[in-house]
Amino acid sequence: MSSPIVFIDGDQGTTGLLIHERLRNRTDIRLITLAAAERKDLQRRAEAINACDIAILCLPDAAAREAVATIVNPAVRVIDASSAHRTQPDWTYGFPEMAPGQAEKIANARRVTNPGCYPTGAIGLLRPLVQAGLIPGDYPISIHAVSGYSGRGRAGVEEYEGPGAASAPSYQVYGLELAHKHTPEIQQHAGLAQPPIFVPAYGAFRQGIVLTVPLALRLLAPGVDGATLHACLARHYAEADHVQVLPLSESSAVKHLDPQLLNGTNDMRLSVFPGTEHGHVLLSAVFDNLGKGASGAAIQNLNLMLASR
């Protein structure tokens, strides 16, 4: 059997560049991209996507929809790294650790939508707890997350690494209208009855994310405490290769959360911090927004799909 052809459409952005870098020396696939002069040629892009086995789309939402619409070859499989299809029922959500059997669904899917960076952490924390009935589906969830500036794509990299870098802000909260495009994705895949309050921010570091979710125990199911929440997450991810749950015995020694701790990896660390004095618990996720939050997740999904051939 010949090596499968993998086509990256949009390999000049932050996600596409990393995917290309991590795949270019692999001998089990034939990696193709378009020359600079052909990237905006719709006919050439359509020819390339219909000639491949698996297409990885690293495009803006509208361009991703446009690319999918050009597919006429029923054998072409797609991994879409944009947010265009993340809540669509006919696309498989590409978070292998999200639920039992999800990795198998991805492996056999024709259309896979890569999770957003922030939703990876939020869903990773919340879905197991909501599914287990430990957090009510109508709990007023509040999420705060700080990402490296590469989360803005090339515009963020240019602001912090370009000629005007000296004047770039050290920290900025955005999404103040509380209508971030990731909110519906989080609500749907975490199993929430209502949209969470999601407050994102950028820091003056290139990549990495810290995402936190505070909980009031009085609003949870009776008898639920930090140990209960931790035990649920630990069970859910016990066999996961890329998601680790910090042992509860170690959380008391943690005084700071470093968003850059897992940069360069496809791993995510989840933690539970019981605040027994006031009956509160803090959930946290730390991971690389360009790793488990983007390119690493796409390659993980690609490997699952290749293994099913």
UniProtKB/TrEMBL annotation:
One of its GO terms (biological process) is L-arginine biosynthetic process. One of its GO terms (molecular function) is N-acetyl-gamma-glutamyl-phosphate reductase activity. It comes from the Bacteria. It is an enzyme of class 1 (oxidoreductase). Residues 5-106 form the Semialdehyde dehydrogenase NAD-binding domain. Its EC number is 1.2.1.38. Keywords: Amino-acid biosynthesis, Arginine biosynthesis, Cytoplasm, NADP, Oxidoreductase. Pathway: Amino-acid biosynthesis; L-arginine biosynthesis; N(2)-acetyl-L-ornithine from L-glutamate: step 3/4. One of its GO terms (cellular component) is cytoplasm. It is found in: Cytoplasm. The active site is at C117. SUPFAM superfamilies: Glyceraldehyde-3-phosphate dehydrogenase-like, C-terminal domain (SSF55347), NAD(P)-binding Rossmann-fold domains (SSF51735). It holds the Pfam family Semialdhyde_dhC_1. The keyword Secreted does not apply. It catalyses: N-acetyl-L-glutamate 5-semialdehyde + phosphate + NADP(+) = N-acetyl-L-glutamyl 5-phosphate + NADPH + H(+). SMART domains: Semialdhyde_dh. Catalyzes the NADPH-dependent reduction of N-acetyl-5-glutamyl phosphate to yield N-acetyl-L-glutamate 5-semialdehyde. Belongs to the NAGSA dehydrogenase family. Type 2 subfamily. This is N-acetyl-gamma-glutamyl-phosphate reductase. It comes from Cupriavidus metallidurans (strain ATCC 43123 / DSM 2839 / NBRC 102507 / CH34).
